[in-house]
Structure formats: C-alpha cells, structure tokens
Amino acid sequence: MTTAQLVSEIKRKKSFLCIGLDVDLNKIPQHLLKENDPIFAFNKAIIDATHHLCVAYKPNTAFYEAYGIKGWQALEKTINYLNKNYPEIFTIADAKRGDIGNTSTMYAKAFFEDLAFDSVTVAPYMGKDSVEPFLTFENKHTILLALTSNQGAFDFQTKTVNDKELYKEVLETSKNWTNSENLMYVVGATKAEYLAEIRNIIPNSFLLVPGVGAQGGNLQDVCKYGMSNNVGLLINSSRGIIYASNDVCFANAAAKKAQELQLQMEVELKRY
Amino acid sequence: MTTAQLVSEIKRKKSFLCIGLDVDLNKIPQHLLKENDPIFAFNKAIIDATHHLCVAYKPNTAFYEAYGIKGWQALEKTINYLNKNYPEIFTIADAKRGDIGNTSTMYAKAFFEDLAFDSVTVAPYMGKDSVEPFLTFENKHTILLALTSNQGAFDFQTKTVNDKELYKEVLETSKNWTNSENLMYVVGATKAEYLAEIRNIIPNSFLLVPGVGAQGGNLQDVCKYGMSNNVGLLINSSRGIIYASNDVCFANAAAKKAQELQLQMEVELKRY
Questions:
Q1: How close A20 gets to chain B, by Cα (Å)?
Q2: ipTM above 0.90 for this complex
Q3: Distance in angstroms (rounded) separating the CA atoms of residues B149 and B145
Q4: Cβ of B65 and A22 within 8 Å?
Q5: Which helix H or strand E contains A143, and what residues bound it?
Q6: How do residues A160-172 score in pLDDT, each as one tens digit?
Q7: For residue A215, is pLDDT > 70?
Q8: Which domains does chain B have, with CATH numbers?
Q9: Does residue B163 sit in helix, strand or coil?
Q10: Proportion of chain A in helix, strand, coil states, percent, rounded to 5
Q11: Mean per-residue pLDDT for B44-61?
Q12: Which of A82, A152, B142, B192 has the highest count of CB atoms within 10 angstroms of its CB?
C-alpha cells in the first residue's frame, strides 16, 4: 500500500486508528477456547466488528510466537484474512526485528513476502545496514523504533548523543538512508510533548503512536503536537479495545470502544 | 544450562566454538531439496558431524521465519533434536528480540519454554523493562547486543553518551538490572581491540563473538583481549563452516572447518 492510499483511507473513514491484535489466550473470552484455532477466531471476530472504524491492524508477533507453530499459523491466517477481505486495511507486523544485512533481508522476506504485511517495525540499534534491506521493498513500510512508550525508553533513547537525545539522532541519521521515504517511526504517546520537536526533524513522516489509553497517553495532545499536513499519525490501541469485554458480545464491546476513539479522531481531523 | 556447566563443556571439548545454523535453501547442497524437510535434514547432518567440536549452536531465527510455517517447524525440530540427542550443547536462539514488559515475557516464553533454548539474543534499545522479563528465567541466558560486527555498529553504538560510547553505556547500565548474572553480551570480533575496555566493565560475563572468518575478525586477537578467568567467550562461525562445501560430503567438509577452529581454540586455551 502506498502512503497516499493510507492517507486517502484515513480521510474516507475519518479515523487514524490502528488496533493492536495482541492475543493472550488467558484474556480472550473462554468460550473461544473450544474453537479449532481460538486466536484466529478471536481476531476474525474483532476484525469483522471493527474494520470500518480503523485503518490499520497491528499483530505483535511475540503473542503468536509464544504459542509456537499454532501461533504462527494463527498469524498467517489473520494476515491472509485481512488481505483477502479488507485489502484497504494497512497491516503492521509489530516484530521489532533488526539484524545484519543479509539477515535483515530474510526478515524482510518473512514479513513482506511470505506473510504479505504492508509494514514491519524494526529496531535501530544495529544501524543503517540493518535497516536498509527492509527499505528496498516497493510500497512496503519500515517503522523504526524512535521513542517508545515504556519506562525503559529513558535508559538509552533519551540519553544525549551529539548534543541531542539518541532518538533524535536516530531520526536525523535515518533520514539519509537509501529509500528513507519508506520509513515511518514509533513514537510513544506518553511523551506527547516531545512530538513538536520530532516534527521539526521529520515534518511529514507517518508516526505509529502506541500508549494512548492503557499506558496513559492523551489523544488530543498527540494530535496537537504530532499531526502533519497529511495527518501523519496512526494511533494504536490494543488492550483497551480488544479486551473491552470477555463475554460472548466481546466483538461488539470492542467495536464500541473503537468507535469512541474514531469519533474523537473525527473531531481532531476537523480541527487541524 | 548453568554457566558452570558451559565452562565445564568448554574445558572438556577444548573448544568454545558456536556454529551458526543460518540455513539458506539457495546455498545448501541441492540434493537435500528432495528431502521432506531440507532445512532440518541439513541441520541434522551438520550437527551430527560437528557436535563434538563445538559447545553451542545458534540458529538465526530470520532464516527460519523467511520460510513461514515450514521454517518455524524446521526450527522446532532442530532444537528438539539438539535437546534430545546432545543435551550438553548450549543453544542460542539468535532472535534479537526486545519489546515492552508484558510482550518481552511472551518472547521469553516462546524461546525458553515453547522452544526450550538455553539463551536468546535481545536488543537493548528499549531499555531495562524490555530486558528484565527475559532475566527472570532460571538457568536461561539473555545475550544482549552491545557492539555488533556490522558497519552499522558505528551509526549509534559507538556514539558518545555520558562521556563513553553507547555500547559501554549499555554494558554499564545493564549490570545493575535485576538478575543481571543471567546476561551475556554480543561483541563483534571485527572490533577485537575494543575487547580490553569491555573486559574492564564486565570482567567475567560471557561474550558471544560473531565476525571471525567471513567478516574478517581474528581469533587470536579476540582471545588476547577478551578471554576471562572462566574463558568467557563463545566464538561464532556460520557460513565459514556450514557452507564449506555443497556436495554430498558437505557435513564432513563442515566438520573439517570446525576442527580447524577447534584446534586453534585448544592452543588459545593453553596459552591463557
């Protein structure tokens, strides 16, 4: 999917919501455990109930890998279901990969070709030659970790390097990598006030923003400081939506929570 | 496996060799492609021919994920084969994972419980709460990326933070994390002269050292600057061993290359 198509979908749906599909068998409605593939059954119900309210889904691969082969099969079924039934949806493999050159190419093939995701999250620690292999894939997007939403972000990401915080050095440096137009960035909502400075460095790049809701971030602040001319924001919510209820009406409850966020986003899209 | 058991195996085998199982179907002997599971058939042959010459195997998960479900099954078969037939071998999932707290716990379960590896490589960018969940597993080891062997290591890892290079900040900071005795570190052989300073910070920790051979690192230099009182080194070689030949005698050729390295290691173990 191109960035222009993503922006067009955001305007059509009046939403820049991304729903995180972080499926934990201990948290899903227990009646689903009788299903042949409970993880996929859960995802399918959530997707069918919420696809018109969001523009992206983001399975975090950890939750699938933890269940071994069955988990990987559920991930494959989920991405195939999305690509077949809702091709207008932007799909994100939240995998936080990153390795040396030829190995990064293998990861890129895993997520862009074998699983046919539109994008994958990648860690920057190993530098340019660990990220550029992902950037060579046309109409695929690499979402680089910049400033994450957890407490550990302050261990290294905000330390000063070359008179600026490390995450800003990551933003600055990565702008010069080959095919950097295929980069997006992870920036946590819990540090919304940092977004203004981030926009000075990358005025137009899309930001994937976790941490609204469960982790305490505020949607209005994120939009105030982070919205760009082409919106430039994907706000992720996982637990707050998918675990809104664990009774038989869980998918409706998820849709209700998603709609609350979509309506707030509609207001923000009018404001800017 | 405990660190003491690993050291004991190193002394018994007179080897601190780790063999990287980075299986690329384009590079393995073509007669194996007729097998039901060519990746596992290749690994099994390599393992059976080399297990007495090395103390560790390190599959890089990228190479398995790139083949989807079949790749993941081959990885599972490989680790099960190792654990059943060669339980004295230290196993490393070279996955370079790292995510926020509850998600890192899922990754830890994937590699330590579901796949039953002894260790996993983890990226430090997201800080303490992304790594500590891995450290809670008893007799399991978390191998943190410090200074990698690729060119991109100079993009961020060697930049100055708090008057020292970022990778040294990672070493210093991680020493204070809970259960830090379960940490090991990735330090590339291509920067062997950095090892003396690294040993000032972490005198006893085990180092996983890639980059000997194909990437230009020198075994003697690594030992000179990096060997600790309890050896403290695992030297990885992947392509140089497993792709030594691609005819029907490929496993013997791999064993020959592994033995060359083991004999050099035997000399180094006597020297220090």
A1: 12
A2: yes
A3: 10
A4: no
A5: strand A141-147
A6: 998 899 999 999 9
A7: no
A8: 3-271 (3.20.20.70)
A9: coil
A10: 50, 20, 30
A11: 98
A12: B142
